[in-house]
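REQUEST FORM: STRUCTURE PREDICTION
Request ID: SP-0412
Submitted by: Lab K.M.
Chain count: 1
Length (residues): 261
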Amino acid sequence: MALGEHLKEARNRLFIGAIAVFVGTVAGFFIYEPVLEELSRPIQDLNAREGRSAALNFDGVASPFDLMIQVSVFLGIVLSSPVWLYQLWAFITPSLKTKERRVAVSFIAVAVPLFFSGIFLAWLILPNAVRVLTDFTPGGFSNIITVTVFITFLLRLMLAFGIAFLLPVVLVGLNLVGVVSGRQILKGWRITIFMVCLFAAMAAPGADAMSMFYLAAPMLLLFFIAIGLCLLNDKRRARKNKAQQEHLESTADQASVIDGV
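STATUS: Completed
RESULT:
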């Protein structure tokens, strides 16, 4: 494609993804209240189980409306993830052949559950993270938390987990369509471990090492599984190319014999 065609395709795919997110956001408005109640549950549990004094508060007249927009957009991104993930993948690998289209469908079938798994893992560690962070409150003091700051923190964390779980799938997908080889990925395993741990340290909440471990461990496991799959696919592709080369050489030899006769 020419540069103009690439830009046009990017615009079209961004438009489709934006429409999907908008539709998901509209749906998010209808489930906003039960979702907000679940997101605020870690604070409620602190008061109920540990006798803490913690409360979520709005700091402005328009803050409830702003929060509703933020949560609804987050829900829109999550609900529309099959659409925008496919659009992203289709843009990375344009002009897909029939076999590569099957790869694209497989990519979505794996990527969407992993994206949700990352969000779910973040949700699992949140109560512990909130408890650890509020443990630093001195005795006799209360935690008066701004709800917009707290909920925004939770949403960003869950998105970070979800996107982190997508990266190994992207590597496998790029390998399947021949963009990157397994050996190229394997050569950077040291920097991969460092970057994963750095990302986990920045994204995971809490001062305890366990929050970082909860994110880094599954990410590293997924990365090395992805590398293994890429190496296996490289071997399969090499055998196929060798067989095709031998077939072409055999055909050429036969043609030479016929021409000689």
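NOTES: Residues 3-178 form one domain.
Reviewed by: T.R.
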